[in-house]
Write a structure and sequence with these properties.
The protein is mainly α. It is built from three helices and three strands; from the N terminus they run αββαβα. It binds zinc ion (ZN). The site of zinc ion has 8 residues, from α2. The site of zinc ion (ZN) has 8 residues, from α2. Keywords: Membrane, Metal-binding, Transmembrane, Transmembrane helix, Zinc, Zinc-finger.
């Protein structure tokens, strides 16, 4: 039973103690992150973020969250760049989608126009035939009448 609980806490902490991307907001231990300026010889006046608990207890080489400000900024820019690239990809996809959609709409409109023209033409043909029949009948009547009169 105790084995299971240590296993589970071990796995959760390894997950939350992973590398932080961008500016850290809170340490895995729940403590707030504080922004400080380094006074060490290799990194003079270099800004960094560190877990408030580790700072107040003057912990060194601990596994509480620590991050240089310049590295965090680079991360943030990287994230923005990737987001921008993703956005561009989406935009391209949407443009393509829109073009395809417009093509479909135009094709449909064209088909409908052709269909209505064909419809109108066929209707005109039948009405022309009717007119021809009526004219023929009228002619016959007129011929008949003239024969009767003559
Ligand atoms: Zn911490």
């Amino acid at each position: 039973m105790s084995n299971v609980s240590t296993n589970s806490t071990g796995s959760t902490s390894s997950r939350t103690r992973g590398r932080v991307v961008g500016v850290p907001r809170r340490c895995w231990c729940g403590e707030r992150i504080v922004a400080l300026i380094s006074k060490s010889d290799p990194n003079p006046y270099r800004r960094y973020y560190h877990c408030g608990f580790a700072v107040s207890n003057r912990l060194r080489n601990d596994d509480h969250t620590f991050k240089w400000d310049d590295e965090a900024s680079v991360n943030e820019i990287d994230t923005l760049t990737t987001k921008n690239v993703e956005f561009e990809k989406h935009l391209k996809y949407f443009r393509k989608e829109r073009l395809e959609f417009e093509k479909i709409v135009y094709e449909k409109m064209e088909n409908e126009i052709f269909e209505t023209i064909e419809d109108a033409l066929s209707k005109a043909k039948t009405s022309n035939r009717k007119m021809m029949v009526i004219l023929a009948i009228l002619c016959m009547i007129m011929i008949g009448c003239s024969k009767l009169l003559g």
